[in-house]
UniProtKB/TrEMBL annotation, chain A:
GO MF: transmembrane transporter activity
Phosphoprotein among keywords: no
Species per Swiss-Prot/TrEMBL record: Ureibacillus xyleni
Main location: membrane
Subcellular location: Cell membrane
Top-level taxonomy: Bacteria, Bacillati, Bacillota, Bacilli, Bacillales
InterPro entries in the cross-refs: ABC_transp_permease, BCAA_transport_permease
Name this polypeptide is given: Amino acid/amide ABC transporter membrane protein 1 (HAAT family)
Top-rank lineage group of the source organism: Bacteria
Family: Belongs to the binding-protein-dependent transport system permease family. LivHM subfamily.
Key words of the record: Amino-acid transport, Cell membrane, Membrane, Transmembrane, Transmembrane helix, Transport
TM segment ranges: 12-41, 61-81, 93-116, 144-162, 192-215, 227-252, 258-279
UniProt topology in membrane: Multi-pass membrane protein
A Pfam family that the UniProt record links to this protein: BPD_transp_2
Single Gene Ontology BP annotation: amino acid transport
UniProtKB/TrEMBL annotation, chain B:
Protein's cellular compartments: Cell membrane
Keyword entries, A-Z: Cell membrane, Membrane, Transmembrane, Transmembrane helix
Name of this chain's protein: Amino acid/amide ABC transporter membrane protein 2 (HAAT family)
Pfam families: BPD_transp_2 (PF02653)
Topology versus the membrane: Multi-pass membrane protein
An MF annotation (GO) of this entry: branched-chain amino acid transmembrane transporter activity
Domain of life, per lineage: Bacteria
Xref: InterPro entries: ABC_transp_permease, LivM-like
Organism listed in the record: Ureibacillus xyleni
Major subcellular location class: membrane
Transmembrane feature ranges: 12-30, 36-56, 68-85, 91-109, 116-134, 166-185, 217-238, 250-276, 288-312
CDD domains attached to this UniProt entry: TM_PBP1_LivM_like
Leader peptide range in chain numbering: none
One GO CC annotation: plasma membrane
Amino acid sequence: MEVLSQMMQLLFSGLTLGAIYALIAVGFVVIYNVTGILNFAQGEFAMLGALTCISLVNMNVPLWLAIILSIVIVAAIGGIFERTALHTARKSSVTTLIIITIGVSIALRGLAILIWGTQVQTLPPFTDNTPISILDAVLLPQNIWAVGISVVILILMMYFFNYTFVGKSLTACVVNPFAARLMGINPEKMSLFAVIVSAGVGALAGTVIAPISGATYDMGMMLGIKAFVAAVIGGLTNAPAAIAGAFLIGILEAFTEGLWSSGLKDVVTFSFLLLILFVKPEGLFAKASGKRV
Amino acid sequence: MNSKSLKLIYNNSILGPIIFFVLLFCVPLVSSSNYLFSILTMVGFYALVCIGLTTLTGYAGQISLGHAAFYGIGAYSSAVLTGTYGLNPWVAIIIGAIISAVVALIVGIPTFKLKGYYLALATLGFGIIVYTLFKELSTITGGSNGFFGIPPISLFGFEFITDTSYFYLIWIFVFFAILFTRNIIHSRIGRGLRSIEGSEIAADAVGVNLMNYKLQIFVLSAIFASVSGSLLAHYVSFINPDLFVANTSIFFLIMVIMGGKGNIWGSIVGAAMYVLLDEILKHYVPMLLPNVGGQFEIVFFGILLVLTLIYMPDGLVPRFEKLISKFKKKTPTNGALQSTISANATGGDNK
């Protein structure tokens, strides 16, 4: 029974982590597909979301409003980032654009040090955080919030991409940018849109994880990289696969931490990434495609 | 200088580097400030890493976010082999370089088979693995506390302890690295890599083995980083894992971009600019913002990186060259300044 409850416990924390990674990974996949850029600043959106939300709460803004406001603020920052950095340099090579996102990510991290300092900040849980006991495993309501919010958002995004006009235009840019342009879809506008959406979703991920593990200026890097790993494992171009990859990574990490060593969990995760790149670079869940030249 | 020798410089002869390094090695005749030499030595360490990285970014078109790991592998190999096992430092440097080369092969082979930017991801992940291992394998590396008591390096009984002597040592390494890399760029590998710019598919079709060339450059850059790390370990005699975090890799990339990714001299210019800016920021920003802590300077370097890429994507060195050629048009007799070396020198004068 003890083993079972420990397994349950690890599964819960794995699912929570996976839910957070999934939100960030989806944003990453959206930007990658619309613009072809690996956005290394993706994790910083989560960091900015978490820290902005904490500052708002400290100013006595109600929590729900603070969350919405921080999503809006970070989405705006995402928009500014796209217009000032990516749009200005849009004629450059993709290599250059990727390095630009690296520059933006460390600039945002430095900015966070200047504004919030290096101390860990905390956000109160969304609701009363009395642990719930299931099969002797302890489950915090915040973990349920994390998984719940992430599932709802992911379903909403699925709806958005498949059933709304803007969403379908974005999907069209992904499938065939040239044809999309012929149909009157403006890829530059779509690029702006993609960055705004993923910044907003990233900010939400940040506010969800802040009550669980706290928020610091450098939290974004690891979150971003883990989301990358999830997306690559899922196949980079496919949002549902990236989500599956995210949960896989979350659970893998939780079990490594619980059963082996917390220090070595990053080693396990990234070794897994290298292994995937070795044996199945097109991703675990990818169908064969005809794009290999 | 007569114009014939100047022509030689421009034609990528060995003369350019020799003049640059002779001038550099004369610096101790003019100044004896230890601070200056510690700064110039630091520039040397970074330049050595950046020479390889510039070639990788500029010629092979690949982004590496894990060179701090090779820098660290070199440093820790030297530290452990000389500090714990009492090996000769020179042997340790070579062993470190071999380990780095093998590791680079292991990371490189799967990633170069893929199109696109997987190297950036793979090296980023790999960098974090190596950093974590430095921290966790504390019985070998000393963990987060670091590794103390790395012996100094010596040659024929002469110990490199003073800043001035180390300045000579590191820059001799940089000199040979530059010569070696220039030869590679002008060899079959360099020509093959340049053909990618025209058309990667065409290059592939005429039998240029791009994957192999990219891999060779990647391994070479890993070896340079490793040697630089080894030399660093003997210079500072104490290392800890935080010297080799992911940020360090990003700083290397910033140096490469600032200097100019298409020119190996860019690596020296970029390294020098970085060290200079870092010193200035660390000195002046706390005066303006007294409560600031941590690595606040990354905000400036981040913005600088973005601005460089938007407004002068080829970095500083081509800028100098353009400036010089304008100057040259006005005074046509002064062809000397066309060489990149004098370009660097003039760029320095401009400030």
